[in-house]
UniProtKB/TrEMBL annotation, chains A, B:
NCBIfam families (alphabetical): glcD (TIGR00387)
InterPro entries (alphabetical): FAD-bd_oxidored_4_C (IPR004113), FAD-bd_PCMH (IPR016166), FAD-bd_PCMH-like_sf (IPR036318), FAD-bd_PCMH_sub2 (IPR016169), FAD-linked_Oxase-like_C (IPR016164), FAD-linked_OxidoTrans_Type4 (IPR051914), GlcD (IPR004490), Oxid_FAD_bind_N (IPR006094)
Pfam name, any one: FAD_binding_4
Keyword Flavoprotein: yes
GO cellular component: glycolate oxidase complex
SUPFAM superfamilies per UniProt: FAD-binding/transporter-associated domain-like, FAD-linked oxidases, C-terminal domain
Protein name: Glycolate oxidase subunit GlcD
Keywords assigned: FAD, Flavoprotein, Oxidoreductase
Taxonomic source organism: Exobacillus caeni
Organism ancestry: Bacteria, Bacillati, Bacillota, Bacilli, Bacillales
Stretches assigned to the FAD-binding PCMH-type domain: 37-216
Length: 468, 468
């Protein structure tokens, strides 16, 4: 609970209309897109500029009040759930695209800008901002930065991190730092820019972002490939890339996901196949068609049931939208949907998909798998019911085994969703005690009072490895 | 000076043959490629594996002995000059390419691998490692990582940082951490990988590196464009990119550099022009020729004196080699060559080149300018004589003004050479007190006894801004 004195000071900083602590508002911001995590904040505030944020952080640091910076709360790791109470900080007033610089190919934006709004704004100028998380219609750039969001175009274009040239951030001690610049090269000191990207709001509050843009690809082409055999689909993925072709997108959906997505999107997806690859390539027209031909050949060599090009951009867009709606579609099936993010080297996808299916069978669970196959970034998704304690225990055991397997294959516990509170017990599995210790030293250096999004990334205790 | 007890322990760790403290060896490792910096180390040691490095760091941490990890010492920021004595650590025994993984497009290497050896090894498999610092014939991957080296292909392909997927490092406390993996996406905790890239050996010793490879471009084409007017050359650079073409390489040389390089390389470079752009594009043949045509058109619109394509790969290679030899060529002219690294947004290149020439005139100095124009990364190079104290003072004032101007234009004090000891007094100009404080907090967290490359990056006192 905030004291009346603190409340008064916060209202002074942001104005009465930007300070909310009604039960309704606290309830609305008590959770994010992550199932089974909920906790009431003490207040929800919407500062108007970095100076207000600076004052808020100074006050919170002095009073040791937790602060949770939050974009649209679409993350899936409980990264913005205020699990230790305190203040949820919104960027509703800081949502402007400040500049699109066509000469230096950069955009300067405030953290509250919606990802798709930025993408559309730069595309109008013939420019391209590639990171496209599935939540891009509502996610914010600030949220994308905090989580280092990926997306469907990550295989060819990389993730959010690869497009952040610089940023402005307020640190817990109230210092404002500016990193980077409109510069392709800058080695003046440690890479604070990339340290902040993916730091999940645990080191400070990002107040301005300088993004790199690239020229808009001339054309784009989309292909749907069906397989009888999941392994053959996975082998195709590896084979396309070892044939020196890097498609923009190389998505995998298994049969259960396909059925649910078709039921939701009703675009005539072929639900008789056991696995589907959605493949896109962009670039100059002659190269796109050449690449797509080679890809089709590889897929046919791997006994694809069918290889079909989208005939129109509408058809291609319907396929992409269907893929992006996988989580929403799956979420309709059962009260609780737990979407995970285990990631492996792409040469291990086939092995990982097989392991997920075996683990699902072992624990008698309904797990669908889809994801960014080209990145080795799979989203095994469990349809369950949080009220069923016995089943939830099996779910937890199953995901622990999935993480364990991913790490054993040279992978990681999270490819693009972040650690947050949800995966914090598993961080040590990936990094070892020494790695976690090094990260905690950074956290301690920036935020000694642990006010920035406390409880995230670092667990109180690490989870013991399940014996498999 | 090391005590005889410490010496005994070090010899026990690495073996007698890998511990050297003769005057000759100490002299050889008392300097790097940076003029005017020299200081004797107490010993030079060559560990054989990470376990030995772990023991060395534990010992040095306990005894508070400085350690300077050193590749080939080609850096230009006094980054590997042992200015506080202690131990120079070499990677002569850790110079293996451990794996080239064609399915996941990665290379795993030890830090002592020579950059060009790696480039050649992966090209034999039809793969491509783009970072190509001018020193690549002798520089090591470990050195490239510590300095986040750039190169001629940075415009299109980025710098070393963009190709490091993971690494193994020994921390000053003896902990060994492993970051990243063969993964396009990995958000398990803070980005320690990129924190280490460019950290100049101040946070720990990198002992293994996992690098990203890309498919080898099919073809490459090279063009030389001459200008009467330097401004027109600079304008061409901006205009090419705002025409949505990103060439692989877009190099600028001014007339004085051109004359010296031609005198050195004797390949018939046209020394009558006031500025030259060396432009390369790679990719599929049809795209390369289309891009080169558009580039030629832009250059002609900007009143280029001539636009000439290299007729053969030998001719193109001669041009590239000539450009890479700029430093060597200039270094023959005068006893001391100070090559700087001021970097600006590419839209400001013309203004920056003009400012450099004005500053050179003001201080009556011989400054040539060349560099990676597409990146805004210029190398103003002063031909001088360190024994002439009065002139050296003018040199220092001139470079301070150049840094000041670069920052005023939204640039940085170093694009690809690093801060080291040489530019440490200027770091605060770029980052502000708050930025330097944040970086020092990281250094303190990792290396509380300041054993790792002490005196680098952070100056005892920051330099006062010269009033301009």
């Amino acid at each position: 609970m905030l004291t009346s004195e603190v409340k008064k000071l916060l209202v002074q900083i942001v104005g009465q209309e930007n300070y909310k602590d009604s039960n309704e508002m606290r309830l609305v911001y008590s959770y994010d897109a992550t199932p089974t995590f909920q906790s009431l904040p003490d207040a929800v505030i919407s500062p108007r500029n970095k100076e207000e944020i600076q004052k808020i952080l100074q006050l919170c640091n002095e009073q040791q009040i937790p602060i949770v910076p939050r974009g649209s709360g679409t993350n899936l790791c409980a990264g913005t759930c205020p699990t230790q109470g305190g203040i949820v900080l919104l960027f509703t007033h800081m949502d402007k695209i400040l500049e699109i610089d066509e000469e230096n190919l950069t955009a300067t934006v405030q953290p509250g800008v919606i990802t798709l709004d930025l993408i559309n704004a730069v595309e109008e100028r013939g420019l391209f901002y590639p990171p496209d998380p599935s939540s891009m219609k509502i996610s914010t750039i600030g949220g994308n930065i905090n989580e280092n969001s990926g997306g469907l175009r990550g295989l060819k274009y990389g993730v959010t991190r690869d497009y952040v040239l610089g940023l402005e951030a307020v640190l817990p001690n109230g210092n404002i730092i500016r990193t980077g610049g409109k510069l392709a090269k800058d080695v003046a000191g440690y890479d604070l820019t990339r340290l902040f990207v993916g730091s999940e709001g645990t080191l400070g509050v990002v107040t301005e972002v300088l993004l790199k843009l690239v020229p808009m690809p001339e054309t784009k082409s989309t292909m749907l490939v069906l397989y009888e055999d999941i392994d053959a689909a996975a082998r195709s993925v590896s084979k396309i890339i070892s044939n020196r072709i890097i498609p923009t997108t190389l998505e995998f959906l298994d049969k259960p996901t396909l059925e649910v997505v078709e039921d939701f999107a009703k675009i005539g997806l072929p639900t008789h196949a056991n696995a589907v690859l959605l493949i896109e390539q962009d670039g100059p027209p002659e190269i796109v068609s050449r690449d797509m031909e080679k890809i089709a050949m590889v897929c046919r060599e791997e006994q694809a049931l069918s290889v079909e090009m989208a005939a129109t951009e509408e058809e291609a867009d319907a396929l992409r939208t269907a893929r992006r709606s996988a989580l929403s579609a799956l979420a309709r099936m059962k009260p609780t949907t737990i979407l995970e993010d285990a990631t492996v080297p792409r040469s291990k996808i086939s092995e990982m998909v097989r392991a997920i299916n075996e683990i699902a069978a072992k624990y008698d669970l309904n797990i669908c798998t889809f994801g960014h196959a080209g990145d080795g970034n799979l989203h095994p998704t469990c349809l369950t019911d949080a009220r069923n304690e016995e089943e939830m225990e099996r779910v937890e055991h199953a995901f622990a085994e999935i993480f364990d397997k991913a790490i054993a294959l040279g992978g990681t516990i999270t490819g693009e969703h972040g650690v947050g509170e949800m995966k914090s017990p598993y961080l040590e599995w990936k990094l070892g005690k020494e790695g976690v210790e090094a990260m905690k030293a950074i956290k301690q250096a920036f935020d000694p009072n642990n006010i920035m999004n406390p409880g995230k990334m670092f667990a109180k205790d690490s989870r013991k490895r399940v014996l498999v």
